[in-house]
Every structure is written in C-alpha cells, then in structure tokens.
C-alpha cells in the first residue's frame, strides 16, 4: 500500500500534530477536530468540499465536521488537529466562525518556518508540540473564549468516556454519573462538543487506537486498545474520518 503520510504524529489531550511528507490523496471524509494545514517552504495543498471544484491554499483552517478531500502529494507540511470542545478549539471556533475551509494569512509564516526547521533538525516531541501550541496561540490571539470554561458536567462526562474506552460506553450510565437525564445530557453534550454522543465516542476510540499504532502496536493491537471489535472496524472508522487507511500512515 502506498503511503498517505510519512512522518511524526504527536498527541496531547485535545489535539495532535502530524508533521512530515504528504503522500497519496485523502478521499472525502469528515472528522471531529478543527484542522490547521500548514505546507512548508512556500508550498501548497488542495482541498475539495462536496459539489465544489478543488481549491489551492498556502495555509488553511478546516471547520470541525466539514466534509472534504485533501491532496498535497510530495509536500512537506504540518497538520494540527484541535478538538473543538477544548479551550483552544473553543477559541479557534469563535475566531473562525465561517463553516467550511478558510485561507490563513501570512501572520503565522514564522511559526510555520519554525515547525519546518524543528522537524528537519529532529527536534524532540515536546519541542514540536510546543511549536504547535505556539501556532495555535498565534491564531487565537487574545480571544476571550480561552477563558470560557466548558459546562462542568460535560467536562466530567468526557473524562468518564476516556476512562471507559477499553469496553462498552453507553449514554445512559454517563448521563446518570453526571446527574442529568438522558435527554438533557444528549442535548447538552451536542451543544458543548458540536457532535452527538456516539460519534464522539468513536472519535475518542480512534484517537486511542492511533496513539497505540504510533507507538508501534499492530493494527489489531491498536484496534483493541481503543475498544474496536477488530482491525477492520478500526480501519473503516479511520478511513471515514481521515479519508485514508491507517496502514498507509508510516510513523517515524
């Protein structure tokens, strides 16, 4: 299988950095995270949304849940994924309210150059993550949403979901644990995260499995770590959310 991405994938609570060489295009897909796409060395990437032609970008931000295809074959780049319910994600969404895909200006060019240089020099994972956060901070600026806390009950629910990923995760027990009726919990969860309960659980399972795969687990082992029934289920979910097969991702 030809590579769709070759490089380093670094993860933290609420986000991740994919940095390296883009390969085969990603088919139409949609995922939970806000996506920041940063080609290196004055390069570019192409995006397509349903029913529209391909559009070129020198840097772009993609709204959470926005269906899109992606192509940047042979381009060195960084992709930053930020979960919309996180502090940074809430701030990004406030500043970039428009749905779809938006071009980013030259204000972050120095941050992109720093990421490129750090990757080329084999910087530590911690250093690369800090540069990703610095890029997000540059985009967010002094957004007041950074100080706006999420609903405490939903924040607690998100922790419970992460703790239970190795087994079944159902809405009713989580709602009971945070002292909400299932209907109220379902509504508030969508309001706070921008996605339904079941899709969110799938996203977290995917995140958990991806973390295991990046650390060297086989696809089957990674699938079980995230609570998927098997590697086929993990692969189908990965393709649906990223447009590529997990086996086409080659972590360094």
What does this structure look like?
With 252 residues, the chain is an alpha+beta fold. The chain has 2 domains: 143 residues, Sandwich (Jelly Rolls); 93 residues, Arc Repressor Mutant, subunit A (Orthogonal Bundle). The chain is built from 9 helices and 11 strands. The strands form 2 sheets. Strands 10-7-4-9-2-1-11 form a 7-stranded mixed beta sheet. A hairpin with a 6-residue loop joins strand 5 and strand 6.
CATH-level-4 superfamily name of the largest domain:
Jelly Rolls
For the biggest sheet, the summary is: 7 strands, mixed
* E-strand count: 11
Strand order of the largest sheet: 10-7-4-9-2-1-11
**CATH topology of the largest domain, which one?**
Jelly Rolls
Oligomer: single chain
- Cα shape: globular
| Averaged pLDDT | 93
Order of helices and strands: EEEEEEEEEHEHHHHHHHHE
Q: Identify the CATH class of the largest domain.
A: Mainly Beta
Question: How would you sum up this structure in a few lines?
Answer:
Helices cover 42% and strands 21% of the residues.
Key words describing this protein structure:
single chain, 252 residues, alpha+beta, Jelly Rolls, Arc Repressor Mutant, subunit A, seven-stranded mixed sheet, four-stranded antiparallel sheet
């Amino acid at each position: 299988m030809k590579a769709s991405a070759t490089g380093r994938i670094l993860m933290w609570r609420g986000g991740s950095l994919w940095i390296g060489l883009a390969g085969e295009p990603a088919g139409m897909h949609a995922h939970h995270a806000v996506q920041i796409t940063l080609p290196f060395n004055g390069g570019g990437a192409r995006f397509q949304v349903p029913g529209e032609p391909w559009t070129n970008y020198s840097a772009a931000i993609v709204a959470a849940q926005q269906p899109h295809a992606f192509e940047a074959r042979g381009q060195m780049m960084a992709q930053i994924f930020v979960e919309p319910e996180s502090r940074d994600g809430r701030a990004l969404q406030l500043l970039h309210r428009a749905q779809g895909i938006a071009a980013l200006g030259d204000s972050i060019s120095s941050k992109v150059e720093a990421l490129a240089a750090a990757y080329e020099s084999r910087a530590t994972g911690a250093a690369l993550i800090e540069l990703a956060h610095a890029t997000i901070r540059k985009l967010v600026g002094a957004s007041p949403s950074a100080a706006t806390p999420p609903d405490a009950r939903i924040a607690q629910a998100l922790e419970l979901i992460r703790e239970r990923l190795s087994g079944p995760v159902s809405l009713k027990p989580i709602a009971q644990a945070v002292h909400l009726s299932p209907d109220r919990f379902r509504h508030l969860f969508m309001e706070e995260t921008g996605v339904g309960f079941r899709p969110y659980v799938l996203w977290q399972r995917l995140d958990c499995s991806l973390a295991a795969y990046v650390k060297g687990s086989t696809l089957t082992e990674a699938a079980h770590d995230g609570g998927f029934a098997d590697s086929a289920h993990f692969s189908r979910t990965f393709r649906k959310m990223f447009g590529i097969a997990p086996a086409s991702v080659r972590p360094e």
